[in-house]
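Changelog entry: the Uracil permease record was regenerated in this release. Current contents:
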Amino acid sequence: MNTEIRYDVKDMPKAGLLLGLSFQHLFAMFGATVLVPILVGIDPAVALFSSGLGTLAHLTVTKYKVPAYMGSSFAYIAAMQLLMKTDGIAAVAQGAITGGLVYFIVALIVKFAGNAWIDKVLPPIVVGPVVMVIGLSLAATAVSDVMNINGQYSLTNFTIGMVTLLAVVLFNIYGKKIVAIIPILLGLIVGYLFALVLGMVTGQEIISFAGVTKAAWFHLPPMQLPFLHYGFKIYPSAILTMAPIAFVTMTEHFGHVMVLNSLTGRDFFKDPGLDKTLAGDGLAQVIAGFFGAPPVTSYGENIGVMALNKIYSVYVIAGAAVLAVVMSFVGKVSALLQSIPSPVLGGISIALFGVIASSGLKILIEDQTNFDNKKNLLIASIILVSGIGGLTLQISGLQISGVALSTILGIALYLILPEPDTNH
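Regenerated structure tokens:
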């Protein structure tokens, strides 16, 4: 068991602290969760609503044993953009639900076939580098948020990002009591206020409150409820395009569960079981599809928060989910959250994604992995470069890249390559 844990999975912080910790998780997932629907052409409030509802569903299915937050999945963006141009939101919804059904099918197979195979195909030499890839593959996005605006380098953005990052570091290292527990939230507040003051001093509009001014206090998310609105119709293109992507996000799911296992000192593959975690993901996707929102998946950003503050309480995650649902109805608060500048989110992300990558390194150290072993050296090297570099396989519309493809390569190499001859 990890002795550094501040709040374990079943521990509930006091009400005031619980609220602050939950807001911290809300901020961590917010940028990515609302970006996906914006890119696809779906109202972000719907995505926020379904992410909260999906997270609560996932917690329920996993018996409140797995602290995982469900946010909009990037893996489906290209498929959703294509379907929105051809068949519209009804097809996207059907694709999301189909992806969720794929999770259910695999969960049933795991339930009856058992999970003894997990230790055989996912040893530390595969798990460690894959976890590192999960963090490092997101590094370019975080750094770009800090440095650039509209594709151009911005010293202003860089400064804001570095101030935010420094605040997170200082609060985490030198903070006492509650300050040390919510360094991400406090860092975000410092970064936001700094950006606001810098904008006033330089005359730049770094933060715009136009959206907040226009927004109503009560805002009903424009949920399409596609099956009720458009009637029932089969969209073969949606099924064939989005269902296979579920296998891609499934490998990311394995990776995230591995990180959580390492952080909490538990084995969620066994309790509540991989079948439960997969079914939880599947149900969350079905819910997202029913409301016309992008498919959801477990979020590395929130895992990064937990890795940094050593708080793994499922009640904190549930609190963030409830806040997300509430915020989707409060127009002004939702607009205020959307006003957070990208360099502030980027500065926070540098810390979060780096901590995830370091967790992978920790797995290898604790296993005392021998890198004089050529098999180990090659597996780790290939996983890292293919995953971080974004190696992609495309076959007639199906795309496997990054974390998913590097995981598949790592597993295949581990099973195929012979152990080196120790006699030479």
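The mean pLDDT is 83.
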